[in-house]
Amino acid sequence: MRRIRILQVGDIHYPDWHFVASDVDAKDQKFSPAISENLRSSAFRAVLRKLRHLALSDSMHGVVFVGDFSSRGKSEFLEGAFRHFSLLCRGGGAASRTIPLLFVPGNHDVNRKDALELGKIEKFRMISQLAERFGWQPVPLDRPIAVSVGKTECPTEILLVNTSIGSWELQNLPGFLRDKLKTDDWSTPIDLGSPVPVDDGPAIPTAIVPPEKPKDLIDQYYSQLDTPYVSAPMLNSLMEHLLEAKQAFGVIVGHHNLLPQKTPRISPYAEMLNAGFVRTQLLSACKPILYLHGHIHQDPIEVVSDPRKLGSQVVSIAAPEIAGGFNELILFITDHDDLVGVRVIPYRSRPADGTLVEEEHCFIPASLNSRTALDSNAFALLSKLKQYRVDRDRDLLFWNELSDLFQPKLADNILEDTLVMLHSSQYIEIHGLSRSNKDWKIQVKGK
Questions:
Q1: Is residue 67 within 8 Å of 295, Cβ to Cβ?
Q2: Mean pLDDT over all residues of the chain?
Q3: Which of 7, 103, 354, 415 maximizes the CB count within 10 A of its CB?
Q4: What DSSP character marks residue 248?
Q5: 311 contacts: CB under 8 Å, gap ≥ 6
Q6: DSSP string, 70-117
Q7: Beta strands in 92-215 (DSSP E)
Q8: What does the alpha-carbon distance between residue 310 and residue 2 come to, in Å, rounded to a whole number?
Q9: Residue of 379, 358, 357 whose CA lies nearest to 425
Q10: What gap in Å lies between CA 394 and CA 31, rounded to an integer?
């Protein structure tokens, strides 16, 4: 079994990112504010340091950025973002290791003027040129970009999808909005209608703090009038890739979320316009599909399947805004190119004390179409586990007890791979799978 390790980096919003300072008890106002500032630290610096450390490690196969490099279409800052993360993830000098840097554009990467003057495809001209200049993978336009990561002899394909093709496309908006947005007179807000409170309205969490007012009108438009969707040519080409017989699973990167976000959003176009159709198409491939995204500044992990379609599975994994951390993903893939599962390692910032912590891992088994992926080691171990249950009259054992079941002993990585395969095939249950394998408790299922 081989492992593919990639980093998933969420919305950057350069240079608007903010260095959230740690807490300092500064009740005494007599001292200079400079003293308290010198005592503060920022978790954001820790995020960048950890990202750099992992990206430069020999075992990392790629870094995936899920869009929104800048904010509100300020394309003049895109070059700074590409330069910053090129140096961060690849180090300096010609001899530095070149790790693949993959990305998709976000709605905030689309400049309003470029969209009006250049059109649907050409509005991505600047970000495309920057990607080529800094040696990143190309930007997907009307077709997905397929990128191979991992070893040359057995690479894994990642499909980059543009969900921001509708950003600032005025023909998608009602006529009164189109006319207003074509002008430069934004002195007064556009009246989008006043909400009328009703007793049987949608359920929402109790407000803790009043919502922030937009700083200016362009903030309001970027937040409310985005029209994200996957175009027909993009989706058709994407499905052609996924339905190829050689593709046992898929890894897709987009900016916008396929599933509705947790936090209620008051907006005319709050979600991807054709998310339901795209999701249905992905499930029709009847194979495991990972969908990596950002946009919502939150980090849900959600799994969708259709019980009528054997093997159908869409695993949606979101990355938080970069100030909140990032994800490391480890894909477990058999020698037959079947996806056994994916482990998500969340690195999250703690603004209160300015630290970055590795939170509890999450392992998501893939929906295997059959159990033919199990190798001889797996069947031999399963047989020994069943015999152990008969001999000892108990079906729960610990990692350190497994070494006695094989003579000669299996290497730790082979033993871990074999247990993960048996767990994904539902022969055994691994309790504590999110923790180190030394803490695992293995239970044989069935009779």
A1: yes
A2: 83
A3: 103
A4: S
A5: 286, 287, 288, 367, 368, 369
A6: SSTT-GGGHHHHHHHHHHHHH-SSTTS----EEE---GGGS-HHHHHH
A7: 101-103, 145-149, 156-160
A8: 25
A9: 379
A10: 66
Kindly report the pTM of this predicted structure: 0.83
d(Cα 225, Cα 116) in Å, to the nearest integer? 15
DSSP code of 255?
A: S
Between helix 275-283 and helix 232-242 the angle, nearest 10°, is: 20
Both structure tokens of 165: 């093709």
Express each pLDDT in 189-234 by its tens digit. Answer: 555 554 455 455 555 555 555 555 555 666 666 656 678 999 999 9
Please name the residues in contact with 67: beta carbons below 8 A apart, sequence gap of 6 or more.
11, 103, 104, 105, 106, 107, 108, 109, 164, 255, 294, 295
Q: Is 19 left (phi over 0), alpha (psi -120 to 50) or beta?
A: beta
* First and final C-alpha spacing in the chain: 28
CA nearest neighbour of 234 among 89, 390, 120 = 120
For residues 5 and 330, the answer to whether their CB atoms sit within 8 Å is: yes
How many Å apart are CA 440 and CA 430, to the nearest integer? 6
Query: Distances in Å between the alpha carbon of 31 and those of 35, 37, 168?
Result: 7, 11, 49
**Residue 362: closest CA among 8, 75, 1:** 8
Q: Which domains does the chain have, with CATH numbers?
A: 2-23+38-168+226-365 (3.60.21.10), 376-444 (1.10.10)
